[in-house]
Write a structure and sequence with these properties.
This protein has 80 residues and is mainly beta. Helices cover 0% and strands 34% of the residues. It has a two-stranded antiparallel ribbon with strand order 1-2. A two-stranded antiparallel sheet has the order 3-4.
Length: 80
């Protein structure tokens, strides 16, 4: 039996960007950057970005993006 696969991730959350409009809160947004590395993962390097999944079961939510390469992928998840 092979070694267990593990995922290590960290998130950086930038301060709220008011989009240059101090008096309009509806156009404000946050930028979140998540960096992840895997040990003993599959050779496909398949990753998914999922919003709204149950953190305990991993079920539910919406897949925002799928990718098989190590690239930066901008994803828009919603507004303020």
């Amino acid at each position: 039996m092979g070694e267990e696969c593990t995922l290590t991730a960290n998130a950086t959350i930038d301060p709220c960007n008011n989009n240059g409009t101090d008096d309009i809160a509806t156009d404000d947004y946050f930028t979140i950057q998540i960096n992840a590395t895997v040990a003993n993962g599959g050779s496909s390097n398949k990753y998914e970005v999922v919003v709204g999944a149950d953190p305990l079961t991993g079920t539910g939510g919406n897949v925002l993006n799928k990718w098989w390469y190590q690239l930066w992928i901008p994803v828009t998840a919603g507004k303020h």
